[in-house]
From TrEMBL:
<feature type="transmembrane region" description="Helical">
    <location>
        <begin position="159"/>
        <end position="184"/>
    </location>
</feature>
<dbReference type="InterPro" id="IPR036259">
    <property type="entry name" value="MFS_trans_sf"/>
</dbReference>
<feature type="transmembrane region" description="Helical">
    <location>
        <begin position="362"/>
        <end position="384"/>
    </location>
</feature>
<feature type="domain" description="Major facilitator superfamily (MFS) profile">
    <location>
        <begin position="67"/>
        <end position="465"/>
    </location>
</feature>
<dbReference type="InterPro" id="IPR020846">
    <property type="entry name" value="MFS_dom"/>
</dbReference>
<feature type="transmembrane region" description="Helical">
    <location>
        <begin position="230"/>
        <end position="250"/>
    </location>
</feature>
<dbReference type="GO" id="GO:0022857">
    <property type="term" value="F:transmembrane transporter activity"/>
</dbReference>
<keyword id="KW-0812">Transmembrane</keyword>
<feature type="transmembrane region" description="Helical">
    <location>
        <begin position="134"/>
        <end position="152"/>
    </location>
</feature>
<dbReference type="GO" id="GO:0016020">
    <property type="term" value="C:membrane"/>
</dbReference>
<keyword id="KW-1133">Transmembrane helix</keyword>
<feature type="transmembrane region" description="Helical">
    <location>
        <begin position="196"/>
        <end position="218"/>
    </location>
</feature>
<feature type="transmembrane region" description="Helical">
    <location>
        <begin position="334"/>
        <end position="355"/>
    </location>
</feature>
<keyword id="KW-0813">Transport</keyword>
<comment type="similarity">
    <text>Belongs to the major facilitator superfamily. Allantoate permease family.</text>
</comment>
<keyword id="KW-0472">Membrane</keyword>
<protein>
    <recommendedName>
        <fullName>Major facilitator superfamily (MFS) profile domain-containing protein</fullName>
    </recommendedName>
</protein>
Length: 465
């Protein structure tokens, strides 16, 4: 299959190569605290194998078929579960819960309050707990919480459910990002991330169809409970079932994947060596925490998430109501949200593929933002006579929501500037690391990939632009 190489010997280490020579001694001192992959490779008779292309493709197929279907379904449910309240809002929820004033808007916000409040705790647990098992528990809990919404009969109860729903779902996106980086090489991650993220769109398609079917069916035949409660029960119980399946299938890492042979587990680790980031480390290291806090990119990505989620939250919670305000009936608005989901699926899969193919992920992201900005500007700027059919915000149906639309355009513009800064900074860091690798005293440490170095310490780590 391949040649074997000597593994890293902690007692007689070779010269480490890192971006800052002053941390050499610290790295060697804590080499026993390295990535779990290094321990696995040391247990495998002191050998690390180099994969041939056929073996790599075989492993990739196995990994794809076991991880991607479940990750896609769960992420689709993740979006559907957040937006179920949007469907329910035009199916009697506001009347039955006696919502007045801006109480519905507060229900939309409570999810994000719970999500934001628990994000730090969620990320700590994702690092310290078994990744697959912890993620599965969160999925089961969020399904149970969502199902409980069917028993709510007042604003206070709805607030509690939405808050805990945000807490339970706070681990999903960061957990899936960890799973993807753990199992796939950098050249594979964009397409896989685009694939499971595209199920936001599938969630919108399926959710709209289910809500439409329930609305039409209950209107014709009646039901013992309110139609909006059926939606919460259906999506919540489905999520619980998928969560138990996730618990059985998705491993914590390559080392306990029951669908891989012992030899293939080591090979699955070896195939991601090129990432220069390991597969997992459960130990907290204060110097790494401090480095993260002083890294401009930590704040750049945090700022991007904050600004980008302002329009995202509004559109997610008011999507059905916005379509209804275009001039459609309540049941039609449930069905006509489906094309938007289809566009999202195509755009996400295409951007993920293009990002990996061109090696320009940030450029593809900026292109998507510019498209969204143009669409929103057209909605604001075009006169009513230039809009086609019922796709208008007619004054007699609803306000034009111009302030909200302008806010969305501004947010997208700020995100574009933030992405440009991220690209500039990473390009600058890549050039600095290239100079380090080209220096005469540069020598790469054996198994450096598994020593749990930060991207700042590891000169071999190159940022994907």
């Amino acid at each position: 299959m391949a040649e074997a190489r000597d593994t890293f010997d902690e007692k007689t280490p070779s010269s480490p190569v890192i971006a800052d020579r002053h941390v050499d001694e610290r790295i060697l001192e804590h080499s026993h605290d390295a990535d779990v992959a290094l321990q696995a490779l040391q247990y495998s008779e002191g050998q690390v194998v180099t994969l041939d292309e056929a073996t790599n493709k075989r492993l990739l197929r196995i990994i794809d078929w076991h991880l991607m279907p479940l990750m896609c379904v769960v992420y689709g449910l993740n979006y559907l579960d957040k937006t179920t309240i949007s469907y329910a809002s035009i199916m009697g929820l506001e009347t039955d819960l006696h919502l007045v004033g801006n109480q519905y808007e507060w229900l939309g916000s409570m999810f994000y309050f719970g999500y934001l409040g628990w994000e730090y705790g969620a990320n700590q647990l994702l690092q310290r707990m078994p990744l697959g098992k912890y993620s599965a528990v969160c999925i089961i809990l969020w399904g149970m919480v969502l199902s409980c919404f069917a028993a709510v009969d007042n604003f206070g109860g709805a607030v509690a459910i939405r808050l805990f729903l945000g807490v339970c779902e706070a681990s999903v996106t960061p957990g899936f990002a960890l799973l993807t980086s753990q199992w796939y090489t950098r050249t594979e991650q964009g397409q896989r991330t685009g694939l499971w993220f595209s199920f936001n769109g599938f969630g919108q398609i399926i959710g709209g169809a289910i809500a439409y079917g329930i609305a039409v069916g209950t209107e014709k035949n009646g039901s013992s409970i309110a139609p909006w409660k059926i939606i919460f029960l259906a999506t919540g119980l489905c999520t619980v079932c998928v969560g138990f399946l996730f618990l059985w299938v998705i491993p914590d890492n390559q080392l306990n994947a029951r669908w891989l042979s012992p030899e293939d587990r080591i090979l699955a680790i070896e195939r991601v060596r090129i990432n220069q980031q390991g597969i997992g480390n459960k130990h907290f290291k204060m110097y790494q925490f401090k480095e993260a806090l002083t890294d401009p990119m930590t704040w750049a990505f945090a700022f991007y998430s904050l600004v980008a989620d302002i329009p995202n939250g509004g559109i997610s919670n008011f999507f059905s109501q916005l379509i209804e305000n275009f001039g459609y009936t309540e049941t039609q608005s449930l069905l006509y949200g489906i094309p938007g989901g289809a566009v999202e699926v195509i755009a996400l899969i295409a951007s993920g593929f293009m990002g990996d193919w061109l090696g320009r992920r940030l450029l593809c992201s900026m292109g998507g933002l510019m498209s969204a900005m143009i669409g929103m500007i057209l909605i604001i700027a075009l006169p009513m006579s230039n809009n086609t059919g019922p796709q208008t915000f007619r004054p007699q149906d609803a306000p034009r929501y111009v302030p909200a639309e302008i806010t969305i355009v501004v947010c997208y513009g700020v995100c574009l500037l933030d992405l440009a800064f991220i690209w500039w900074w990473y390009d600058r860091q890549n050039k600095k690391k290239a100079l380090i690798r080209a220096s005469a005293d540069y020598a790469k440490m054996e198994n450096q990939e598994w020593l749990d170095l930060t991207d700042g310490e590891n000169a071999e780590f190159v940022y994907t632009l």
